[in-house]
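User: structure tokens for alanine transaminase, please.
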Amino acid sequence: CGRGPGGCRGGRTDMALRCAASLAAGRQPRGPRREGTMRWSSAAKPSAVKINEKASREKILTLESMNPQVKAVEYAVRGPIVLKAGEIEKELRKGIKKPFTEVIKANIGDAHAMGQRPITFLRQVVALCTYPNLLDSPSFPEDAKKRARRILQGCGGNSLGSYTASQGINCIREDVASYIERRDGGVPADPDNIYLTTGASDGISAILKILISGGGKSRTGVMIPIPQYPLYSAAISELDAIQVNYYLDEENCWALNVNELRRALNEAKAYCNPKVLCIINPGNPTGQVQNRKCIEDVIHFAWEEKLFLLADEVYQDNVYSEGCQFHSFKKILYEMGPEYYNNVELASFHSTSKGYMGECGYRGGYMEVINLHPEIKGQLVKLLSVRLCPPVSGQAAMDIVVNPPVPGEESYAQFIKEKESVLNNLAKKAKLTEDMFNKIPGVHCNPLQGAMYAFPRIFLPSKAIEEAKAHKMAPDMFYCMKLLEETGICVVPGSGFGQREGTYHFRMTILPPVEKLKILLEKVKDFHIKFLEKYA
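Assistant: Done. Predicted tokens:
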């Protein structure tokens, strides 16, 4: 191949030696140079280098040349108002005076950031998995050690730092299947239908990615509730699919009405091919919990219209109102009989981020997909394999959600005490928030049956709406921005979730500690009254 000693090509060794000698003598080496080219030398004096600023070339990646689908993506939960909140926080740290001393970020359901304490048992197992030397420590209970050893045995090299199968650690998928069977009163669950994911969002995006196809009027339409969690509209934009809105009934506690589903579907058939129906239960941002009859109606509608069902059930532990109960779509589907259970394609999602755990940062989750075509199953595994595997620590955290301590184990008493404390506290805060909002003139809040948010309707004076338009802002964005600037409270305008034309809302989490939540709600009340007075 003509290579000389040291890996240089033949004839270049001497040149390399001459270069080294020249550098040692403080001279710039001379070498062969092609005509018309410029060679950059790090040894050149700064004064000798003249940069022609006008000659700098245009950027390859610009707003005009970037992927238009990415540019179309919007995610209100971390949108402009949150960026503004970050700017205000920086100003407060610099000592710039504001009419408040801190920014209260009530825009997102991040439980631990709001002061919720972690569940001890979950953290113990993840700690043991992360640092196995602790398995010899008497400070950790045996039931936690037992689970950690089982998880580690499923990891390559008995280490959480190894890759796992793309579908997730097998023993954890078995635990998820067992959990689903217990939750649904014995309805069978197959570990092979379980896919561990990076939070529920990862699973939702993957299923949508594999579902969307076609062009023009045959492009896939995805039916989503309005108001909705902005992950759905963002994923639909990114995948260049068609968003088909169906409206929840605010006058009836945000209920889902099948007649509204049928209206949305029939109208959408004129411009796309609707084949996906997304349900969020309990609702985000609306907090409604669907009853059994409603779920049966939705399943029948999906069966009748040949729609693929997506059931976002990440708030299944967060049900507060008396008379409300969580029913999984999988369970109701099974109980409706084989004609439905053997035919309706359903993907259900759960996560470590919500519930009583609030472990958002671990990014743990799973999806169960049933009635998938065998060949499509292979395609889904292939798609998931591109991201190798979900975070293994998140998989371990998910295992504790589905395989918690049981009666008779030493950690059970503490676990159940912590779990019930979190959920009882959330139930109190849900009622407190609903009651306080409904005492404010010009605000109406439906009962917070579940989830972690209030989505009150705000009645804005026409003068405020006109001023918002003058600032080229949605009226509820204008309201929320004023609320942030005057009180330090960061909430998300309803326009970021979708709402009926002419109505205005905002979403606020109920996660702050009770005393802080009371202060927050009092501040909102005072602000709203002043806002009405100013723009009346």
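User: Anything notable?

Assistant: The chain has two domains: 68-103+413-535, 120-402.
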